[in-house]
Specification:
With 184 residues, the protein is mainly alpha-helical. It has a domain of 126 residues. 41% of the residues lie in helices and 5% in strands. The chain has a three-stranded mixed beta sheet, with no helix packed on it. Strand 1 and strand 2 form a beta hairpin. The longest helix has 16 residues.
């Protein structure tokens, strides 16, 4: 009887070794494979998306030569237009207060005041919005909050850009939300 068991054990071991290794679902495998690249992809999106143009003080004037340690800390440079005056927010402080899941939900339904092109962020695939969160989070919180929004009719302190918009084409939707969500 012991001889039979001793013969069966190696046979069962070989049979088990020949079984295929379970593979993750293709979609899950793609997400897992992409994880190490999310940080670099997030930095790429910030660079080519122009986030630093407004959310990093002095970025344009320096020809983009601002140390990464200063990126995305907001700006005191206001944008005055018919909607009032908006200021580029400190994304590092804002994102540091959100989990990745919260950021993905928030950024997927983002509605802000001009001149922020919220539709560009809102229309990004979820994986790109995750990459943005990972990169901005990797920079850590820094700086101070941007000045508060000023409603129409309130004069901002310099510096600010005054935007004069052309008349909207006939039939265009010209209504602006009175209180869109704040820029992150």
């Amino acid at each position: 009887m012991h001889a039979r068991i001793l013969v069966l054990i190696p046979l069962l071991s070989m049979a088990a070794a020949c079984q295929p290794t379970p593979q993750p679902e293709p979609e899950a495998a793609a997400v897992v494979a992409a994880e190490p690249d999310l940080l670099a992809h997030g930095e790429y999106l910030v660079r080519v998306g122009g986030c630093n143009d407004c959310h990093t003080a002095g970025y344009g004037a320096a020809g983009g030569k601002v140390p990464k340690e200063q990126w995305l800390t907001g700006s005191d440079q206001g944008f005055l237009g018919p909607w009032g005056t908006t200021y580029p927010s400190n994304l590092r402080l804002s994102v540091s207060k959100m989990s990745e899941a919260d950021w993905v939900a928030y950024s997927g339904s983002l509605h802000t005041r001009p001149p922020m092109p919220d539709f560009m962020v809102r229309d990004l695939p979820e994986q790109d919005r995750r990459a943005l969160h990972r990169f901005i989070s990797s920079l850590g919180p820094a700086g101070k909050e941007a000045p508060a929004y000023l409603p129409p009719g309130q004069a901002p302190s310099p510096p600010y850009f005054q935007l004069v918009l052309p008349e909207a084409p006939a039939g265009a939707n010209t209504t602006m939300a009175s209180e869109p969500a704040p820029t992150p």
